[in-house]
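Here is one chain, start to finish.
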Amino acid sequence: MSLFSEHNSKPTVTVATFGDSNAMDTSTIASNGVTSSVEVNKLIRNTYILLSLTLMFSAVTAGLSMMLHLPHPGLVLTLVGYFGLLFLTNMLRNSVWGIAAIFALTGFMGLTLGPMISAYLTVFSNGAQLVMMAFGSTAAIFLSLSAYALTTRKDFSFMGAFLMTGILVAFLAGLGAVFFQLPGLALAVSAMFVLLMSGLILYQTSEMVHGHETNYIMATVTLYVSIYNLFVSLLHIFGALGGEE
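Its structure:
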């Protein structure tokens, strides 16, 4: 399942000529423009509401994981759970069960995040500062990039293929860094993900603004994954560069 798949084709524009009996009048065109704008605004509103709820739910499950001292499920189980729930959410995206699926996905990712945060708080004497720095930086990047895409209304759809390729390369490089225990490569991968997730935020927001993405569940998934990976990558970078053991 690709996060960059378009569920609907781009809207077509009909050009009316004088003397055409089937041409739409000015009021009809204006009405369609208003309807399109209303639908886009509704999509954006629903996406950000659902994104806020899933982030809060993910924070709750991360907090529970920390309170209960749950161990990290490991790389294999994390990937299986993530891609499995991602596939389920994609399959159910057009039904009410899609909302349940996205909460299952984000709740699971919160459970995997809790042990990571606990490790930073335990290993580093300034662990709390590192976590807050990563959290604040993630929020600042997301809000600024979203605001830029929403206000300028620039079309970033051209970034889709580049982002897909970059994420695949970074993902494979990350696996290599884990299996071959290469901390330098792992740090480079984190830096790559910071750039790629920033681009993905711009891309997904642009897709909603221009009507290329019409499903708020899938838009929420993409933005949530961007925020999650951005936070984890920044936390890794801050820990490697500024952590005090």
